[in-house]
Amino acid sequence: MSDVENDQQTLEEEKTEDLLFDPTLKKKKKKPKVVFEDQLDTKEEKVAENANNSVEVNENEEKAEEDDMSIFADMKKKKKKKKEVTDKEKVEEEVPAESTELEQPKLKKKKKKIDFADFEKQLKEVDEDEARGAEDDNIFVPEGEQVEKESKVEEAWLKSDRDYTYQELLGRVFRILRQNNPELAGDKKRYTIVPPSVHREGNKKTIFANVSDICKRMHRQPEHVIQFLFAELGTSGSIDGSQRLVIRGRFVQKQIENVLRRYIVEYVTCKTCKSPDTILTKENRIFFQQCESCGSTRSVSAIKTGFKAQTEKRAAQRRAAVQ
Amino acid sequence: MSAIQNLQVYDPFADTGEDDAGPQGYIHIRIQQRNGRKTLTTVQGLPSEYDQKKLLKAFKKEFACNGTLVQDEELGQVIQLQGDQRIKVQNFLAEEGIEKKLIKIHGF
């Protein structure tokens, strides 16, 4: 926590003391409501009580739509279930040995699951390495859902008879402070953007509908974002009439999200102060990122497509070349 | 210790060696979608001290997939593997003593 906040906290402690009771009442009312919403949203949510709830809600909806795209949907499901198991495991060979007591007949399946889960976990690790704590997993939160989630996390000690921890109380103080006088609590709002809305068109194309919206929120040129997306996904595409991005290949929301997250880490957040409030300018063919809140400037690496393997049939390519 | 260490001349504007093709460059591991749920993994920018042919052979054996060595005009030799082998390649290279920072995984 920074010094400024510390000061504010001490300043406000007297004030909040008498306010303490009101908010708790409010919160208690609020909590059942949260649960209710969850139940409405999906049944699967209960299984996966992860931190990034809100993101998953959307995924689950999408999962229903795209059952035939089972590779990626499965990946998600598997990851949820096997998360605890996979955390410690690095080598595939270890897996059967550890889990035989539980699910012997499913061994073969399980191996695959672990594979995917492990894979995703490591991918995330890589991301986090790059991010160095710049942003958490859940950047993609629809507006309005954030506060509810926080309160849910907050009150974990209410149900059990354990003691509350310092962190929880601290969070509580800040939340109450923020609720009652938002202008005093400092602008500590987490950086969020809306989740990308991704759906399939036909068999081989994916539509990313709210690119322009997301670009606007990140204060980036859509061309730059799209260029990055294509470079990372190793594919191509175009923008259709209603400003939607048509991507060649099958992708699901989670994958686009991963790429966008990487984009944000690389090109949006300031490396010095971690603020997302930056602008990107081009000078002499080099992109510079200037932070609006701390004023630092740094050059960002150009987007490189790299090697592109030939994926379509040679005959088809030749035919296209002739025409 | 006769020479004064501080006065060594060096050119601050010299190339830092952060070129992609150089020994310091990143190793890019990418994925490409093929038709259906098939994918292709490409490994680009491997240090030249490694024999790519032998590396490919080891990859193929280790990951039980097929693969090929592609000669690109700009990027030199690129290893192509069938299927999504990104994490496996990364682990393999890390175990062989390549810094994990130098390995960049792309794709979704």
From TrEMBL, chain A:
<keyword id="KW-0648">Protein biosynthesis</keyword>
<dbReference type="GO" id="GO:0031369">
    <property type="term" value="F:translation initiation factor binding"/>
</dbReference>
<feature type="compositionally biased region" description="Acidic residues">
    <location>
        <begin position="1"/>
        <end position="20"/>
    </location>
</feature>
<dbReference type="Pfam" id="PF01873">
    <property type="entry name" value="eIF-5_eIF-2B"/>
</dbReference>
<comment type="similarity">
    <text>Belongs to the eIF-2-beta/eIF-5 family.</text>
</comment>
<dbReference type="GO" id="GO:0001731">
    <property type="term" value="P:formation of translation preinitiation complex"/>
</dbReference>
<dbReference type="GO" id="GO:0005850">
    <property type="term" value="C:eukaryotic translation initiation factor 2 complex"/>
</dbReference>
<feature type="domain" description="Translation initiation factor IF2/IF5">
    <location>
        <begin position="188"/>
        <end position="297"/>
    </location>
</feature>
<feature type="compositionally biased region" description="Basic and acidic residues">
    <location>
        <begin position="34"/>
        <end position="48"/>
    </location>
</feature>
<feature type="compositionally biased region" description="Basic and acidic residues">
    <location>
        <begin position="84"/>
        <end position="93"/>
    </location>
</feature>
<dbReference type="GO" id="GO:0003729">
    <property type="term" value="F:mRNA binding"/>
</dbReference>
<feature type="region of interest" description="Disordered">
    <location>
        <begin position="1"/>
        <end position="107"/>
    </location>
</feature>
<dbReference type="GO" id="GO:0003743">
    <property type="term" value="F:translation initiation factor activity"/>
</dbReference>
<feature type="compositionally biased region" description="Acidic residues">
    <location>
        <begin position="58"/>
        <end position="69"/>
    </location>
</feature>
<dbReference type="InterPro" id="IPR016190">
    <property type="entry name" value="Transl_init_fac_IF2/IF5_Zn-bd"/>
</dbReference>
<keyword id="KW-0396">Initiation factor</keyword>
<dbReference type="InterPro" id="IPR045196">
    <property type="entry name" value="IF2/IF5"/>
</dbReference>
<dbReference type="InterPro" id="IPR016189">
    <property type="entry name" value="Transl_init_fac_IF2/IF5_N"/>
</dbReference>
<dbReference type="InterPro" id="IPR002735">
    <property type="entry name" value="Transl_init_fac_IF2/IF5_dom"/>
</dbReference>
<protein>
    <submittedName>
        <fullName>Putative eukaryotic translation initiation factor 2 beta subunit</fullName>
    </submittedName>
</protein>
Automatic annotation (TrEMBL), chain B:
<dbReference type="GO" id="GO:0003743">
    <property type="term" value="F:translation initiation factor activity"/>
</dbReference>
<keyword id="KW-0396">Initiation factor</keyword>
<dbReference type="Pfam" id="PF01253">
    <property type="entry name" value="SUI1"/>
</dbReference>
<dbReference type="InterPro" id="IPR005874">
    <property type="entry name" value="SUI1_euk"/>
</dbReference>
<keyword id="KW-0648">Protein biosynthesis</keyword>
<protein>
    <submittedName>
        <fullName>Translation initiation factor eIF1</fullName>
    </submittedName>
</protein>
<comment type="function">
    <text>Probably involved in translation.</text>
</comment>
<feature type="domain" description="SUI1">
    <location>
        <begin position="27"/>
        <end position="97"/>
    </location>
</feature>
<comment type="similarity">
    <text>Belongs to the SUI1 family.</text>
</comment>
<dbReference type="InterPro" id="IPR036877">
    <property type="entry name" value="SUI1_dom_sf"/>
</dbReference>
<dbReference type="InterPro" id="IPR001950">
    <property type="entry name" value="SUI1"/>
</dbReference>
<dbReference type="GO" id="GO:0003729">
    <property type="term" value="F:mRNA binding"/>
</dbReference>
